[in-house]
Amino acid sequence: MKKNIAIYPGTFDPITNGHVSIINRASKLFDKVIIAIAKNEKKVPLFSLQERINLINEIFAGRKEIEVKGFDTLLVHFTKATHANIILRGLRAVSDFDFEFQLAGMNRSLDSNIETLFLTPDNHYTYLSSSLIREIASLKGDVNELVPANVAQALHKKFNSQ
Fold it and tell me: Among this protein's residues, is 63 annotated catalytic?
């Protein structure tokens, strides 16, 4: 029997409750969900790749169907290397669709054996983005309801040590 392994890629800088919502729902649909954290130095992340891996591992500790890995290669190469056959992408609003549609088409042209599926977060998280979370936290705003507790603590520590 073929295992359905899904990759959920992103920079997750930081992971939000919207991301967590999608991961939890995906874990009910697939045998395994690999949270693929892009190194992506072009974006100049607030948290290092290892910090992001550690934070997300804390959130999903004990969940055998969820695995966390960093990567710095082409997504289709990483997907193949992990024996996954599905790339999951989150859609918050119609504005996300154009970009995600282009990515899905490009990934399909690079490897036609990999499918892209779109999931939406719970309605009350559709406005969340990592960049908004970083901005709110940098200005000493309360992000406790928007991110997991360990992420809120890490953001507080990051911005209060600057």
Answer: no
Q: Is residue 109 part of a domain?
A: yes
Residue 29 belongs to domain with CATH number: 3.40.50.620
Residue among 25, 80, 92, 156 flagged as catalytic: 92
Q: Which amino acid, 10?
A: G
Contact present, 60 and 66 (Cβ < 8 Å) = yes
pLDDT truncated to tens, each residue of the chain (162 aa)?
457 999 999 999 999 999 999 999 999 999 999 999 999 778 789 999 999 999 999 999 999 999 999 999 999 999 999 999 999 998 876 667 888 888 888 989 999 999 999 998 888 888 889 999 999 999 999 999 999 999 999 999 999 875
- 139: in domain: no
Task: Provide the whole-model pTM.
Answer: 0.91
* Nearest-angstrom CA–CA distance, 73 and 76: 8
Of the listed 52, 89, 130, 134, which one is catalytic? 130
Domain hosting residue 116, numbered range: 5-126
Q: Can you say whether the dihedral through the CA atoms of 83, 147, 161, 11 is positive or negative?
A: positive
> Of these residues, 3, 43, 77, 83, which one is catalytic?
43
Active site residue 43: yes
